[in-house]
Write a structure and sequence with these properties.
The structure holds 2 protein chains of 2 kinds.
Chain A: H1 2-26, H2 35-52, H3 58-69, H4 71-79, H5 84-87, H6 91-107, H7 109-113
Helix pairs in contact in A: 1-2, 1-3
Chain B: H1 2-10, H2 12-34, H3 41-52, H4 69-73, H5 76-85, H6 95-123, H7 129-138, H8 144-152, H9 156-180, H10 189-199, H11 202-212, H12 217-246
Helix pairs in contact in B: 2-3, 3-9, 6-7, 6-10, 6-12, 7-8, 7-9, 7-12, 8-9, 8-12, 9-11, 10-11, 10-12, 11-12
The chains are: A mainly alpha, B mainly alpha.
């Protein structure tokens, strides 16, 4: 049943949020410290474990896939509810930062490509 | 008219599904036929979303009662829920295929983008640590920005800036990749894996690689699917704590 997948997702989500809050509490910061990241890690590891045990059937996975495919539409809905009027002054920052961060990362490609070059997968034979 | 208002008012979330569906349909059409797939539909949809927000005030379009459901659909709860679900497509067993270079590129990619966000944010007069962290996170991807911002309590306008930064990144990666590919030796699977890890914004990486060489797409996607997760993990935790510790 699809709801099993959704429930698994919910369990990982809540556990992650809890971990994030606990971590925040631990270091005296009143916020969620990496909760979504923890939740993603939990979902990845638990799905691998459940797949090995053959407990994660396709129908269950579909419950998670649905929400996974909803994330872009949800992000679009979110962007339409942001305070963009107040953010307009930061539009210049967004453009400068978006372009420069991407450009610098692109220029790092040849440098980091040197790592483990031989071991990596080679071009597929055509 | 009144009947329609009541129906929509009582079924705001369902109406929001319809609105977003129409936006997605329209933007993929624009992407396909007007930009010739040069700009990903996702980026266009987000730009439409951001421009719709101008119709309202602090809460964007959801200030208009008819569109109140958008705040429900795009609220932090469903958003984080859906973002977590995307972890399913990141196959942990495949990270070994990406190898050390893949891992290094992911960590360096998130670190460089975040640091540049903080530095440029500082130079443009943002001093609040929550704002700087959110802007730095936005320089990673348009998902990491809002997820981080909501978690640590940044204001809505800063979150909007972080989303806009992520969208600029996607568009620039899409257009810039084919132009710069030769110069950065992006012509083999290994370089594509590194590229995906450094840039991270999946839609930009996929669209940019597709315009360069279709065969490189799966390799770039392999690492970039991990990027948002790593960003959501590091930005609101380690990076935020370091910034607080530095107390800029």
């Amino acid at each position: 049943m699809k709801i099993y997948g959704v429930a698994l997702l919910a369990a990982c989500f809540l556990m992650g949020k809890l971990l994030g809050r606990l971590l925040g509490h631990l270091i005296n910061i009143d916020s969620d410290i990496g909760g979504v990241g923890f939740a993603m890690f939990l979902l990845m590891t638990s799905s691998i474990y459940l797949r090995k045990k053959k407990w994660l059937v396709l129908e269950t996975e579909k419950g998670i896939w649905f929400w996974s495919s909803m994330y872009i539409p949800i992000i679009v809905a979110m962007t339409s509810t942001l305070n963009v009027k107040a953010a307009l002054s930061g539009g210049f920052l967004a453009i400068i930062l978006g372009i420069s961060a991407t450009a610098v990362c692109m220029l790092m490609v040849p440098l980091i490509s040197k790592i483990g070059r031989e071991k990596s997968i080679d071009s597929p034979k055509k | 008219m009144e009947i329609i208002n009541t129906i929509i008012g009582k079924n705001g979330l369902v109406f929001a599904f319809l609105c977003v569906g129409i936006i997605m349909l329209f933007s993929s059409w624009v992407s396909k036929y007007i930009t010739n797939k040069k700009i990903p539909g996702v980026a266009i949809a987000i730009i439409i979303g951001l421009s719709l927000a101008f119709l309202g005030d602090e809460k964007g379009i959801s200030n208009i009662p008819l569109f109140a459901g958008m705040a429900l659909l795009g609220g932090p709860m469903l958003r984080d829920f859906a973002v977590v679900a995307t972890a399913m497509s990141a196959d942990l067993s495949k990270i070994r295929q990406a190898g050390l270079a893949g891992l290094v590129s992911l960590l360096i990619g998130v670190f460089i983008s975040f640091t540049m966000g903080v530095v440029i944010g500082l130079s443009m007069g943002y001093t609040n640590i929550e704002s700087l962290t959110t802007i730095g996170a936005g320089a990673c991807t348009y998902i990491v920005g809002p997820v981080t911002g909501t978690a640590i309590g940044a204001s809505s306008d800063v979150i909007a800036i972080s989303v806009a930064t992520g969208v600029v990144k996607t568009i620039f990666a899409t257009i810039g990749t084919p132009l710069i590919a030769k110069k950065i030796k992006l012509d083999n699977p290994h370089a594509a894996i590194v590229f995906g890890g450094l840039i991270g914004t999946t839609s930009g990486v996929v669209a940019g690689l597709a315009a360069t060489d279709e065969e490189l797409v799966p390799y770039g996607a392999l690492t970039s699917t991990f990027y948002t997760g790593i960003g959501c993990l590091l930005c609101p935790s380690l990076f935020y704590v370091i910034l607080r510790f530095l107390n800029i």
